[in-house]
Amino acid sequence: MRILVTGGAGFIGSNFVHNVVRERPEVRVTVLDALTYAGSRSSLSTVNNSISFVEGDIVDADLVNGLVSEADAVVHFAAESHNDNSLADPSPFLQTNIIGTYTLLQAVREHDVRYHHVSTDEVYGDLALNDPSKFTEFTPYNPSSPYSATKAASDMLVRAWVRSYGVRATLSNCSNNYGPYQHIEKFIPRQITNILTGARPKLYGAGKNVRDWIHVEDHNAAVWRILESGEIGRTYLIGADGELDNLFVVRMILELMDKDPDDFDHVTDRAGHDLRYAIDSSMLRNELGWQPRYDDFRAGLQATIDWYRDNPTWWENDKSAVESRYQTQGA
Length: 331
Ligand code: NAD
Ligand code: TDX
Description:
The chain is 43% helix and 16% strand. It has helices spanning 11-23, 61-69, 83-88, 91-111, 146-165, 187-196, 216-229, 246-256, 282-288, 297-310, 312-328; strands at 2-6, 28-33, 51-55, 73-76, 114-120, 169-174, 177-178, 202-204, 210-212, 214-215, 235-238, 243-245, 265-267. The strands form 4 sheets. Strands 3-2-1-4-5-6-11 form a 7-stranded parallel beta sheet, with helices on both faces. α5 links the parallel β5 and β6 (169-174). Residues 81-83, 120, 122, 176, 186-187, 190, 202-204, 209, 211, 246, 270 line the site of thymidine-5'-diphospho-beta-D-xylose.
């Protein structure tokens, strides 16, 4: 089997590639990645000899068409992925997330190639903090940020290409991932690397917003299960019952790094900040037999802290640019 992995030099995509190389040596992997600020060749350095790497843009129809024609399946991770960046400048989000997905869909349609679309729970908007319900496959789309609106648009394109052109596609919408190789603009690695560089963690607003954390390995195991056994045209929600508020997570990071749990700053809140995400993944569990394996968040967080402490060369060159960007936003 030959798979084309878009965004394979990013956080979730690189973990996916590591996993496929380790667990499925019969699969031939080609990564297509534009190496934006969020992508890094060094995230693939341990598997360099086992994969093909193509530096290029998913908006480039000729390039995409050629690569798709040589694949049996496409797993589409590439995206502009950070909400704060989408608030500052939505334009690359429209290009990559919408036009890029359209470009891939036209290519898989032409060559009749199996396609899996990686998306987010943010397409459903948010839930109230005191609402006991969770997102399901039937929750209406109601995205809040420019990022989530472009992801919602891309999901809709996939559904239309299934129905109108018979494209063999599945979709998954997952909650917040954590683990190694996550860009340090994101919440958990930002706080870990703040502490490692002698700065204080930064909490948006009061920190009461809830995210439903899942280890990246569990997300990727679910993606593979859906690619192998998912029903064409279906959407699967991926989540591991990991709801925690941001204040709790910041305090746990501080405690695991031997700091005073109150040693953080409250900073300007994100505009339109989604309150709570929560996933009901019973359909995926019951129909495809997937189960999360990383059920101890504290242990997973400790391993993630250790990874950033052990791999400073992976992130330290980006740190001052990331923090000065946040400073201009008051965050
Ligand atoms: P990331 O920002 O870490 O990685 C994105 C990768 O895509 C980078 O390597 C980047 O270079 C590449 N890329 C960006 N624009 C490109 C373009 N035009 N052409 C080719 N490559 C391009 O993102 P991530 O956190 O790994 O997210 C991967 C996917 O998973 C995204 O689709 C995201 O919406 C989705 N998702 C993420 C999370 C999460 O918690 N991080 C949760 C649910 C879903
Ligand atoms: O410094 C910070 N302080 C803070 O309190 C940062 C960067 C974030 N936050 C808050 C905002 C969110 O409530 O932490 C929470 C998590 O923030 P992010 O890491 O930016 O993630 P989020 O906005 O929830 O989106 C993530 O999950 C869904 C991914 O970035 C998306 O790609 C994915 O679709």
